[in-house]
Records
---
Amino acid sequence: MKIVKAEEIHVEEALKLAIGEYENQCRQIKQLPEIDVTDQLRELISGLFRKNYGVVAMCDGEMAGYLAFIHPIEGFFGTCRGAYSPLGGNAFSGYDRGRICSKLVEAGMEQLLREAQVTSFALTRYADDSVVDRSLVLNGFGIRCSDAVMDLNEFEVSETSQGNLTFLELLGDEKRRVLDLRYGLVKHMSSSPIFFSTDIRQYRMHFSKEQSRIFAALKGEEVIGYLSIQDEGETFISETNSMKNICGAFVKEEYRGKHVAYDLLAYVCNVCKKEGIKYLGVDCETLNPNALRFWGKYFKNYTYSYHRRIDERVIGYESYLKKEWISHL
């Protein structure tokens, strides 16, 4: 096996591996949309390879895998510099895929640490890949978040069960009525066991200009829960025109356990179905047990995102080690 720098001449070979992985996942997850992802993946891979932070594994003259990262990101899961390899930004083939993954991770992390002082690494993989999953875990990565999908044709259209509640879409400045709930969501995400900090400024935007659609559950005039959707998602799959993506949901604590969240979800699903939408996607932190349990009842998980943060003191350690060693000879 030979590890080389990823270049644009490798794009078409990498594309074949990426398409193969998607087709394999579709065979396992029937809820995934049946779409041609060739153009999306070619554009994604080409862009990543041009950024110069990618490596390729060659075996007997053929590509056995690749791993490419988006350019370094400041403040990535903390105060350090990080890099991320999105779904489609990596693929592994052959009978020895675990070893190929491990070798590419080793080379990719070394390149980013040396050239850009990156110490926080994340990558997204298909959920039903136990070989690569084990390889990543043994290389010190932990699962942080996931993407899931629902085929709306399999969701039974029903009336909401909350006779004393009203469900509706908020428009224009009416969206501001969920501002306190958004604050509650940010506060919840910052607590144990999640410990996820959020830039609160993005939740104080001009609601009338916000692109996401916001649906609310009301008891009288009080907004007790909301769910928002948008066109954009976290993976190339979620960008298909036939899919909308949940980008926020929260129910006041005193109304939990009363099926409010389910009825709000049912209302949104019914709206989407009437508008001809075929799929609904959602991503959530796997560190958030409440969200993971709720979405897992109705959505099928198709990705996991893995993260590893290394000790920042390793930067410059080799020079320090050599200096100290020589001084004691």
Note: The domain at 2-140+307-321 is CATH 3.40.630.30 (Aminopeptidase).
---
Amino acid sequence: MNLTLQLKTTMPDQTSVMIVDDHAMILAGIRSILEHTEGISVVGQATDGREAVALASRLAPDVVLMDVGMPELNGVEATRKIHALDPKIAIIALSMHSDQRYVTGMLDAGARGYLLKTCEADELLRAIDAVRRGRIYVASDLTHVLVERRQSGGHPSMHTGTPPADTLTPREREVLQLIAEGLTSKEIGARLGIALKTIETHRTNLIRKLDLHTIADLTRYAIREGLVSLSE
């Protein structure tokens, strides 16, 4: 793992922020903005979801800026794990996707904010301030998603004939993401540290629950559900 720690003390009145993104230029750009903002201290950064969970558990930052589409462990699952570890950590999603399923997926996982990566620096800072104060912040272009979410009782309105990803177990979602990323069962077992037989059991359960029988079908489903991304 390539965990990067920022070795400086965070003053009591500062907001500590951790940045998570698998694109070096985006990481550098966001970090530059925050490091030139009074009252904000960047305490660490990670390049995938697994690194993010490990680092957040060590640093307990006030705010995590979380990329949604990442290899290994996507932003939704990483958000869910961090929120379970420490609900006080405020997570803001950063994504190129404005689709309702991505937005509701992150909010349902425990994120308090959702921004598009095309947002201006001042909106990013407003979002950090808002979630630090315990509020929800969603980009103005996405407010319609909150309305639709409320009208649908908190569930995405998209109907695809297959159950949503949140009906799968966390481990099944992890396995599905890695299948969609092209890993074999043996490689997935090594990556997750579990037996090959267990991976095959998860694969069988995915096929049964989703009624999808080919790798192509599972991959399309994973993309549609926001577990993997072609563009981030």
Note: The longest helix spans residues 196-210.
